[in-house]
Amino acid sequence: MKKRLLVIAILALALVLAGAVPALAREWGGQRGGARGGRMAMTPLRSYYLLKHLKDRLQLTDEQLGKVKTLAFALEEKRMAMWTQNAKLGLDLKKLLDADQPNYTAIEQTINTRSANRAKYFVEWLKNRREMAKIFTPAQQAQLKEMRKAWLRKGWERRGGGKGPSAG
Hints:
By secondary structure, the chain is mainly alpha-helical. The protein is 77% helix and 0% strand. It has a domain at 80-137.
């Protein structure tokens, strides 16, 4: 009987911990439900395909969509190059950290290089975003702005946040 009670108690504790770990991971700065990263990240190509889908609604011309496509594919190539290089640097970093006598100078350089790569990509992303904004007419920009607000509000409400971030 005591053995059975002990097994039940251990199973109950395991279930409680299994539910608590994702919550604690979010609380301690982990992944926050797909806001960034993973397969749902808003990559340049996802932005292009979204605009392609909204072509009629936004009344985009073929020329506008062509410019968006060119910018999106160019930025996607830069993004993939950065991630490839940073993946290699990440493996190098793991090797450096796993050494019996870590070379802290090399570790710092590797970390700084990865950070610099991400910063360079972010600047490219900002430039790309500015260039893309020039493609749209003021009316299309206003319509996109309203769509973004509606999408954010919908996501906020879906998470139980009431009428939106500005409510409260």
